[in-house]
Amino acid sequence: MFSSLVCMAMLGTASTSNLPAWQLDYRQAQELAARDQKPLAVVLGSGPASWEKLVAGEISDETSNVLRTNFVCVYVDTKTVEGKKLADDFEMSSNPGLVISDRTGRVQAYRHGGTMDNAELQRTAAKIADPNFVPQTTETNQAAAFKTPAPAPVYTSPAANSYCPSCQLRQSMYR
User: Fold this and answer.
1) Distance CA 129, CA 126 (A)
2) 3-class DSSP state for residue 77?
């Protein structure tokens, strides 16, 4: 993570003093979020860099400030055993991914799989940071965020006079 911060400082994409304080331990981040009554913003990615893989393009100072002041931010490296397990627990197959809780830490308010632009992250973070925000459902870009479920079994109606394996009777008996 240090190298990505140095690169960002050198490139001028955001000042290092304005970046969120990234927690690297999910359990500690949960405790901190509960203590401070702040939503938890979990970024899942592979390798040590977080912003570069979540946000396509430049992160604005405004977005960094909203995250830094209103959230407990945690980065989960999915290349580690613990990170992979946490991604599985979140059912997040996309890499990178973002999961944001409500202030209680018990409800997922938002989840996003794949990269996103700065404007979308800023809009979402500002909405969830509002102290009056109470999520009714989890907002998501469902196509990318969730693992693809197994296809539902296909049921067809049996042909006339065919055998029904469920009830062990011939269909002609139902007519």
Assistant:
1) 5
2) strand
